[in-house]
Structure formats: C-alpha cells, structure tokens
Amino acid sequence: MKHYKSYILSLLCFTIGILCIIYTVKAEDEKGKELRLLVIGNSFSRNATLYLPQLAAEGGHKLVMQKAEISGSPLKMHWDAVEIAEVNPDDPKGKPYNGKSLKMLLMNGGWDIITMQQASTHSAYPESYYPYINNLYNFIKKFQPAAEIVIHQTWSYREDASYFSRISEEERANSAQEMWEKSRMAYHKVAKEFNLRIIPTGDAFWQVSSDSKWKFIPDANFNFKNAVYPELPKEKNSLNVGYSWTKNKKLKLDANHANQAGCYLGALIWYSFLFRESPFNLKFVPENVSQDFAEHLRETASKTVLNKN
C-alpha cells in the first residue's frame, strides 16, 4: 500500500510538472505577438481591466484593447443597441460606445479575443442571459468568425451589501456566497452551451473573500448610525469600494464595484488568462494595496487560472 501511494504521488507531481512546462512554453511562444482584445461589458469589465495595460507592458506583451462598455448594462442592453443600429445606423442610441456601434467596432480590424459578460445584478439569474447571449454570439461570429469569444465571470458583492444579484424575476440571492454559487452556475451553463472558455474573475474574488486569513471582516466597532465626517470604518482586505462620504457629507456604501485591490486582482486574472502566464513575478502594484496583500492576490490569480487551463 505504501509503494502504491508513493507511486500515485510521484505520478501526480510528474503530471503537474508537465502541465506547468506546457503552460510556460505556450506563454513563451505567444510572447511578442500582438493580442487584439475587444471587451463587451460594463463597469465590472472596466474595473477588471483597469490595470491590464500596465501588467501586459511589464510582462513584455503587446496588447491592443478596445472597449464596448455601457455602465450597468446587461446583455440585453448591448443587443438592443445592435438592433437599433441595424434599423438606423445613424441613430445615436445604436452607437453607445463613444459614438460607435458594435458592428463598427467588430469591423475595425481582426480581433483575437472578444469577451462578453452579464450585468452583476442579473448574473445569478440564468434566464436573463437569453436570447441575448445567443444573438450577440451569432452577431460577433458573423463579422469576426476567427475570433475566440470568451465569457468573463463577474464577482459577487461584498458580504455587507444591502442586496445581491437576482436569482429570478422576484427573488434575489440571500448572501454573497449564494450570489457567487448561482452566478458561477449560470456562467458555466452558457460557457458549456457555446463551448467557451471562462475568465474566472468571480472565482478569484470568492477565493479571497472566503479565506479565513485574507477575507474582509466588517468593522464591528464603527458607529454607522452616528458616523462623524470624515471618519470611515476599517476595511482591510476589501476587494470592493466600500464606504465613502458624499459631497453632502453622507456616508454611502458601494459593496459592488472593485476598489484598487479588486481591480488589481481582476487584471491579474485577465493577464494570466490572456497570456497563459503566471502573474506571480510581476512587480506592478497599485499604490493603496499593501505588498503582502498584493502577493496573495498574485498567488490567487496564478492558481485560479492555472487550475482552469
């Protein structure tokens, strides 16, 4: 039995080693080539790709990135704009991407990778993806048949959010974990149906948010009911924007969008996914992210993407 266990362990280590070598060889083969990326999304894709250009440059990769983003937009809104532009190409409502339609962006040269995502508020509601994901997929393939279409898995809100994603027309998820689990199922359902790879940003966020050592813990000592400007609660290891003061000195919470740490983690995931390369040794770190947390985020990104490929 001991010899058998030893054999299995040796075989496992050998297999992991081979996978790492293949992963590295692919990365080296692709280094120096220009990658053309079209991002169809909203503020969450904007968050996740904020630091991607810096990381790509540091890693020695040539990246051309175009955005087709509408803040807060679900898949339906992107498809609605396509239909408007098809009826009347001059209608401004059909050109929501800085005065351009999706067709105009798709026809702007060859794209290597084109990403899509659902709005976070609908991400855990599978029915909300249809028929818009089908329509967009077919529309993209019509003009960019050689491009790889991939799905960007968005993340769950912070545990102290006042609401979470819809799971049906009438219900919302009851917790950050339920939102992650059900949105993950929805994204994987779509990916399987269309045979698409997934950028696992949502999984990486959850890995950090559920880690006993690194997860965000709400400040139990802060007096939220009688908060005094400009005091703010402690929000160590938060991946989300969190609390801030408005111009009218009212305390507000954004538990949805990514802060610098969350944007950094998202960019690390995208970097590793796009270039098939671990981001662990990259040096760039946003100014408000501690070195130890940044190292953990790089490690998380590396493990999350490597385990998916």
UniProtKB/TrEMBL annotation:
<dbReference type="InterPro" id="IPR036514">
    <property type="entry name" value="SGNH_hydro_sf"/>
</dbReference>
<protein>
    <recommendedName>
        <fullName>DUF4886 domain-containing protein</fullName>
    </recommendedName>
</protein>
<feature type="domain" description="DUF4886">
    <location>
        <begin position="37"/>
        <end position="165"/>
    </location>
</feature>
<dbReference type="Pfam" id="PF16227">
    <property type="entry name" value="DUF4886"/>
</dbReference>
<dbReference type="InterPro" id="IPR032616">
    <property type="entry name" value="DUF4886"/>
</dbReference>
<dbReference type="GO" id="GO:0016788">
    <property type="term" value="F:hydrolase activity, acting on ester bonds"/>
</dbReference>
